[in-house]
Amino acid sequence: MIAKARRLAAGFLTQMQTEYGLPVSQRALDLTQLLVSELVTNARKYAPGPILLNLRITGGLVEVQVWDCDPVLPVARAADADRVGQHGLEIVIAVAHSFEARREPVGKRITARIPLTDAPGALTAHPR
Description:
Keywords: ATP-binding, Kinase, Nucleotide-binding, Serine/threonine-protein kinase, Transferase. Helix 1 runs antiparallel to helix 2 and helix 2 packs antiparallel against helix 3.
């Protein structure tokens, strides 16, 4: 499921690039796949039910949203050089342009955004 989600994210960005001419850097492609991987992994690990992945382009950003049925909001753990694993949320927060976690009427929705390009002024509006 996690590998499939990564492939869907890569396919989405490739489609936006080829069909709509949106600039998508290799960094944006790689980081989007990383965000998808970490967020879907966390949802699979902590939520007992279904997961919804939503990708969209908005204002020069790719927005990755993962919904799951567990209402408990994630909390990044304190830095610990001796800890092995459980760094997913820390990674997401470190690489994302913005990050948001909010409760929904059922479950929660995690949203992280990455700029589509590495160029200065990359966050200008692009048509959807």
